[in-house]
Amino acid sequence: MSSDVTHSPNNEHGTELEQASSSEVFTNPGLPPHVHRFGDDDAKAARRSERQVASLFVLSMIATVLFVVFYFAVGDDDLITLPLIGPMKALHFALGVTLAVSLLGIGFGAVHWAKTIMSDEEVVEERHELRSSDEARAGAVDVLAEGAEVSQINRRPLIKYTLGGALGLFAIPLGVQLVGGLGPLPGNDLSTTLWDTKLPNGKPRRLMRDPEGTAIRLSDVSMGSAFHVLPEGIDDTEHPLNQKVKASVLLVKLEESLIRSARQKEWGIGGVVAYSKICTHVGCPVGLYEQQTHHLLCPCHQSTFDMTNDCEVIFGPAKRPLPQLKIAVDDDGYLIATQGFQEPVGPSFWERS
């Protein structure tokens, strides 16, 4: 097989590809022909583009000046009502709009400048060989050898070995600081929560609305509703913040026919299920519930969990499903936790099986 071969004046080595195979000959595509723009042939069009670019830069300058003016002139308590948005702080609106216009003016001006005025002809320049010459490489070795000779490090083994030991041991504090900065090992801290314990009177803990602190009846949970839940008896003065965070739960009611996990049905009641809010990726709060898709979304890194299939991960960096809390109804109709989580809550770690 053969074909005509054309050579681009910008690429003298185009034939290298053509000789890559003895059985095939490849045509050098070269560079596409230059497409002339209005400003390339018409001086008036070029000046018009120049004025447009300058106008965008001037618009950016005006917006920047207004940003400074609004920063000092608009009060922090002044409100403004916007359609489809509602009331918001006038200062935030003014600063956001002026900063956006300032950045857009610079960006649009630069793009318009490049598209209409700057030269757009492609140029190919062959890169020189990156490897140093044999003379330069030999010279570098000679410099190193001369430095070793002048320092007498080869003739002073005591200095050589002690220097190596000092530099090697110097890395230990850096490593200790790096590892120590990761915090303590989790141990069993993620395996135990307040849901594992009962109240002082021996009764199971009720599911309480967060932050209202009111108990939840089964009849209060309507289809598609979601409740942020904490255990009954939690006390900010008695229990540290990490205990409160670990016990955070999201309560949702689903159509029982949509639930595909047998354990999920067994641990819930009437389609009402409760899951840990702590993402199994890095521990962010999973609080975004999509009622139509029945997905839970972590806002930090977009890990997505399927609530109809035991909160399995369907997207994102999380590797494990959210732990489920087994719930029931007490004699008064309130939702209670009959036992704690069976898996550690929160992010994955190397000791977790």
From TrEMBL:
<keyword id="KW-0411">Iron-sulfur</keyword>
<keyword id="KW-1133">Transmembrane helix</keyword>
<keyword id="KW-0001">2Fe-2S</keyword>
<dbReference type="InterPro" id="IPR045603">
    <property type="entry name" value="QcrA_N"/>
</dbReference>
<dbReference type="Pfam" id="PF19297">
    <property type="entry name" value="QcrA_N"/>
</dbReference>
<keyword id="KW-1003">Cell membrane</keyword>
<feature type="transmembrane region" description="Helical">
    <location>
        <begin position="53"/>
        <end position="73"/>
    </location>
</feature>
<protein>
    <recommendedName>
        <fullName>Cytochrome bc1 complex Rieske iron-sulfur subunit</fullName>
    </recommendedName>
</protein>
<feature type="domain" description="Rieske">
    <location>
        <begin position="270"/>
        <end position="336"/>
    </location>
</feature>
<keyword id="KW-0472">Membrane</keyword>
<dbReference type="InterPro" id="IPR014349">
    <property type="entry name" value="Rieske_Fe-S_prot"/>
</dbReference>
<keyword id="KW-0479">Metal-binding</keyword>
<comment type="function">
    <text>Iron-sulfur subunit of the cytochrome bc1 complex, an essential component of the respiratory electron transport chain required for ATP synthesis. The bc1 complex catalyzes the oxidation of menaquinol and the reduction of cytochrome c in the respiratory chain. The bc1 complex operates through a Q-cycle mechanism that couples electron transfer to generation of the proton gradient that drives ATP synthesis.</text>
</comment>
<feature type="region of interest" description="Disordered">
    <location>
        <begin position="1"/>
        <end position="26"/>
    </location>
</feature>
<keyword id="KW-0249">Electron transport</keyword>
<feature type="transmembrane region" description="Helical">
    <location>
        <begin position="93"/>
        <end position="114"/>
    </location>
</feature>
<dbReference type="InterPro" id="IPR017941">
    <property type="entry name" value="Rieske_2Fe-2S"/>
</dbReference>
<feature type="transmembrane region" description="Helical">
    <location>
        <begin position="161"/>
        <end position="183"/>
    </location>
</feature>
<comment type="similarity">
    <text>Belongs to the Rieske iron-sulfur protein family.</text>
</comment>
<keyword id="KW-0560">Oxidoreductase</keyword>
<dbReference type="Pfam" id="PF00355">
    <property type="entry name" value="Rieske"/>
</dbReference>
<keyword id="KW-1015">Disulfide bond</keyword>
<keyword id="KW-0812">Transmembrane</keyword>
<keyword id="KW-0679">Respiratory chain</keyword>
<keyword id="KW-0408">Iron</keyword>
<dbReference type="InterPro" id="IPR036922">
    <property type="entry name" value="Rieske_2Fe-2S_sf"/>
</dbReference>
<keyword id="KW-0813">Transport</keyword>
